[in-house]
Amino acid sequence: MTVLGIDPGLADTGWGVVEFDGQHYRPVSFGVIKTPSGEDLQKRIYTIASDLGEVAVRYRASVVSMEDIFFTKNITSAIPVAKVIGAILFRFSEMSIPVHLFSPLQVKTAVTGMGRAEKLQVQEMVRVILRLKSIPKPDHAADALADCICYCSTLSLKDKLRT
């Protein structure tokens, strides 16, 4: 199975592609979609959704794993991210590719075993799990790869519970 992980954001949306056979991870590619702050909001959101659709086609993604929105106090910064998430959900719905949303707590727990793990701990575990030589850069790409791992480990656990 080929999983496309997404760390949504308006300025920087991270993406990562991982192949998973039920036991082993194989990192395929990762990157970031950047949109300029001076550009029209509608154009930025369209670019993100469109470019992610192209990534999914290029790598033949069978499923998408995306971090859901999280905010504590600043709802104004969360609103643009929520719009990006909506556009991504729409794009993959058009493509008939299922999207699974995970909270930051779920992603951190799946990758490190600790829901309150620090960002660097998550990135280091992504490096270890995917057997990479260094932590993926930029940070948003590493976060997207963590989303892939979260989906795969959740899927593995569900499979184990069924047997």
If classified by CATH, what would the architecture be? Answer: 2-Layer Sandwich
For the residues shown, what is the average pLDDT?
93
Fourth-level CATH superfamily? Ribonuclease H-like superfamily/Ribonuclease H
Largest sheet: 5 strands, mixed
Instruction: Count the E strands.
Output: 5
Compile the SSE list and pairings:
Layout: E1 2-7, E2 12-20, E3 25-34, H1 41-58, E4 63-67, H2 75-94, E5 99-102, H3 104-112, H4 119-129, H5 139-162
Parallel strand pairs: 1-4, 4-5
Antiparallel strand pairs: 1-2, 2-3
Helix pairs in contact: 1-2, 3-5, 4-5
What does this structure look like?
- With 163 residues, the protein is an alpha/beta fold.
- The relative contact order is 0.21.
- The protein has a five-stranded mixed β-sheet with strand order 3-2-1-4-5.
- A hairpin with a 4-residue loop joins strand 2 (12-20) and strand 3.
- Helix 1 (41-58) packs across helix 2 (75-94).
- The chain has helices at residues 41-58, 75-94, 104-112, 119-129, 139-162, and strands at residues 2-7, 12-20, 25-34, 63-67, 99-102.
- 50% of the residues lie in helices and 21% in strands.
- The protein has a single domain, classed as 2-Layer Sandwich (Nucleotidyltransferase, domain 5).
- The two termini are 20 Å apart.
- The longest helix has 24 residues, at 139-162.
